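ingest -> validate -> predict -> emit
validate: passed (alphabet ok, no gaps, 269 aa)
predict: started
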Amino acid sequence: MTTESMPVLLDSINYLLPEHAGRVVVAGSHGGLYCAFKCLSCRVRGVILNDAGVGREAAGIASLDACEPHRLSVAAVDYRTARIGDAHDMFERGIISFCNASAQTVGIRPGMACRKAAELLESGAPDFQVMEAMHEYRHDVFLFDTAKEAVVCLDSASLIQPDDVGRVVVTGSHGGLIGGNPAKAANVAARFLAFNDAGFGMDDAGAGRLIPLAERGIAAVVVDCASARIGDGLSTLHNGIISRANALAGKAGFKEGEPLEDCLRGYMQ
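emit:
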């Protein structure tokens, strides 16, 4: 692979920019619907994402079908073969687990090395159609009638705002460190944070934020990817079953195997 044909490596799909149009992208993000929207909006040539354990309603690979009407080739790396949130690791170690029909047309198959798949994506020829805008959402959710404080429910941790300091925040994002950087575990000092475990995966990456957050005094948990749709903050809140808690969350009563919503009710009363 020549330097000119090297893919763009992005640890998060939120780093995708209009100037990446026409390029092959390997992104460390899960393969959910918003990732499809970003790739279609920026008109990339092809993309490889992380399957995030596939999870509830196959949300971790929803982008594959979403991009097919546009003939945009999309493949996903097996979460057990490379760290989610780390595009370089995916490019070097990742093995393809899923691909859409357009990706198959250019020769991509499950079991193929990510590096080889990225090379094949160079021959992709998307046919972009008109699409509706898609957004990630913030919701304030009151868990009981007398609640004085709302849970901040976000489809993506990228939506955390400066005034979320000290608040209870539930996200649809994976629990991995972006680029392996502990400083990116959270943008602000929330009181509590929840994420999707993305199947945990290679090097336990899906829970990578938990210890750095504890070291910053933030209670945090991840929920089982099979219990909640990744990329959907409301699903994390209402459907999520805790699969791991950091030390601070454990002391606060959050237990593995318990519904997140139930634990939050007790925590916030």
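The two ends are 57 Å apart (CA to CA).
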